[in-house]
Amino acid sequence: MIHIKELHKSYITGTNSLHVLKGIDLSIASGEFVSIMGSSGSGKSTLLNILGILDNYDKGNYRLDGNLIAKMSEKKAAAFRNQLIGFVFQSFNLISFKNALENVALPLYYQKVSRRKRNLIAMEYLDKMGLAEWAHHMPNELSGGQKQRVAIARALISKPKVILADEPTGALDTQTSYEVMDILKEVNGQGITILIVTHEHDIAAMTNRIIRLRDGVIAEDIRNGEVKKMKEMAFAAAN
Amino acid sequence: MFDLDKWQEIFSTIRQNKLRTFLTAFSVAWGIIMLVILLGSGYGLENGVREEFEGDAVNYLSVNPGMTSKAYKGTKPGKPVSFTNEDRDLLTRMPGVTASSARTRIFGSGVISYKNEYGAFDIFCCHPEYAQVESIRMIEGRFLNQADIQHTRKVVSLGKIVADALFKNGEKPLGKYIRVNDVLFLVVGVFDDPGGDRDMSRIYIPISTAQKAFNRGNSINNVCVIMDGATPEDSRKAEEEIKQTLSARHHFDPTDTRALFIYNTINEYQRFMQLFAGIRIFIWFIGVGTIIAGIVGVSNIMMIVVKERTKEIGIRKSMGATPSSIVGLILQESVLITALAGYAGLVIGVVLLEVVGNNMPNVDYFSNPEIKLDVAVSATVLLVVAGMIAGFVPARRAASVKPVDALRDE
To answer: What is the DSSP letter of A215?
Structure first.
């Protein structure tokens, strides 16, 4: 699904150049549930933005679902984002003056789906999230967990291949975090590839693969079985 | 463009920012109200002056004798110049002159009566050609004619107001005899004059009859020279020629400015028309300036709108919004605000003009302030274009922000 080779990215601020990603090689197969960890400044958010075509990269190459994502027109990028990717953000990023239903329906608006039809589909997705009766509430009337569920419904409505989640539980308490993770797991169970960026070990432990970044390179790449082992170690350490 | 969803998007953002939208709309509407009032007043002024001119023809020179102020060939200053029939004949023979009339006014002194009705009205003694000078329109009967002059007939043409004053109870004036300074005159016509009430409170009698009946010999007070088709330049040349001819005949210095007074309507009219051309340019200059100020205002507000909505634009982009859809969103909002507000301003301005125009007392040189339909329509089109220009720069900026930067914006 995702294939990255020798990916480099630097930010230029004035005369300083900050080399954030220093050659990343990464392959994520379809249906994987991956978390990216790392301390702040390790480049994990930058990597996620590049994967989401929200930002461009300097060197290397990136293929998403077989498409080479290189310098392209904003229009084409928009089409890829719309069709292949669903975003979930730490701060939810719901549009404040639209109600839950309209927020969920937004990606379909950009697919030129008729209003009636997209509201119907949006209702369906909200219902799946258990939010049917909140459909006509504005985001500021919803709790954090509800907002994130609305955001997930919005990410799912365009039937993307990949869900990219940047600290999806960062603004939530433990209880709600786990609920959100349960939902993401369920989504993953339907075959959608999920990538989350997190710095919480317990959240990362719920995924099937952990990629740890350090100073712009991949320091660790641990898969399922190993994750369980690590979980036990973490448990042991906590006691 | 006529995508219902987009409109709903726009209305929801407008609903979010009622005050801001109102202020923007107000500045545009105000600009248009100002423009409409300016243009309307300009037209009012022009209409008013044109009406003043319409009262009389604008192709004649009125030549009035004065009193010399300079010594000339042995005569002392202070000699009055007086015209006779020969002066009129002399001026009629000048090149470019198509018609002419003498005029002798007997002001208010004449008591005019019919049966028991009487009044004091101005008595104008003239040639038939004078009808052209006053732009007279006959209601019934006729004006004076050449036969009246030749045979010194005692006939009279009455102004509408005079006829109404003398002939009560639906009596017909035509064919009746009225008394003018105790001399009986036959009424041959009643006329209307666009020059207004003063011009209709007159009676016209043949100059030849007046000279005989009222012992005026062959003297006349004034000569009106009609120069049909003359350019202002021709008229100025004719003015000079008149001065030369008459100074030679009456022995006064041709440079004496007090001996002769010539009122040149051809030249005067041109001067007014030039003034209006100037005023019109000035009004448009101010008006366009006001609109530009409005555009800058809208552009400024849209700039703020874009800044405030950066994050939202980022979210939309991450959901797959294309740059053109973002441009459309901002542009459409800007066009909507300017077009609606501008239209409202246009309507308010026109209503104001109408109210003022209908309730205004009759003032000289100002009437019927109005704005022509084509001007109103072009102003509206201008507004829509202005809205587009105002929205375009901010919209381009909104569309060009990188999504990652837009999302980071708080």
So the answer is: T
